[in-house]
Amino acid sequence: MKKINKLCAGLVMLATSSFGFANSSSLWEESTLNKVIGANELRVCFEAGYMPFEMKAKNGDYMGFDIDIAKLLAKSMGVKHTPVNTAWDGIIPALLTNKCDILIGGMTITSQRNLKVNFADSYIVVGQSLLIKPSLTGTIKSYKDLNDPKYTIAAKLGTTGEISAKKLIPKATIRLFESEAEGALEVANGNADALVYDFPSNAIFSSQNKGRVVHLDEAFTYEPLGWAIRKGDPDFLNYLNTFLRQIKGDGTYERIYNKWFKDDAWLKNVQ
């Protein structure tokens, strides 16, 4: 009887092992990482115009912090980097319908977005800040001072800037725009009192438009940005987190960060 029991136990272990192996193999075959390697191409979704993360260069190419990171990621896989410029309001659907393999485009990690996609570990933290009309200098010292119906707030449609404006400045009149550049120009032209948008972009726009806007250079929200992928892909997620740890540990990340955030030499190449 003992021999029979041992034999049965061995058969169960073998079956379990075989099933686990098959299941693991199936996961890898369906992984985006495996498919990217097979296609020799990494397709990366983003929306050009978010300085200094992704921009159109004068020569027609794309440039920016995210672009450099994406190129390095593709290189680490030994595949071609293919940029996929996509309108922001359709960028998650583009990922979900396989128009790209990954979204590297300055996307804030939120629980709502996490219901649709999975995020790798955050690669940078930014927050919302304010661009205001010069005439409001001294009057508007924080977002709280704008919480009045007499003020018109610009924000980009579908962003955390829109969410923050509606949540934190609900009494103000909020106007939504397709791009942050449109919203910033409304402030610069005196048609809006303030723009709520990401700190890096506001800082750059204010430096390019001195006298036309004022940047209140203190972020009032905490927003970790992350790379988004389709759900159910542990192999790809593991690879991305390993890649991020590696470039942060060997100094590569710091070099790229300093190029885009601590130097403005790249501005002359922006379209």
Automatic annotation (TrEMBL):
Residues 41-264 form the Solute-binding protein family 3/N-terminal domain. InterPro entries: Iontro_rcpt_C, SBP_3_CS, Solute-binding_3/MltF_N. Residues 1-22 form the signal peptide. It comes from the Bacteria. It is found in: Cell envelope. It comes from Neptunomonas concharum. Residues 41-263 form the Ionotropic glutamate receptor C-terminal domain. Keywords: Signal. One of its GO terms (cellular component) is cell envelope. This is Transporter substrate-binding domain-containing protein. Belongs to the bacterial solute-binding protein 3 family. SUPFAM superfamilies: Periplasmic binding protein-like II (SSF53850). GO terms for molecular function: ligand-gated monoatomic ion channel activity.
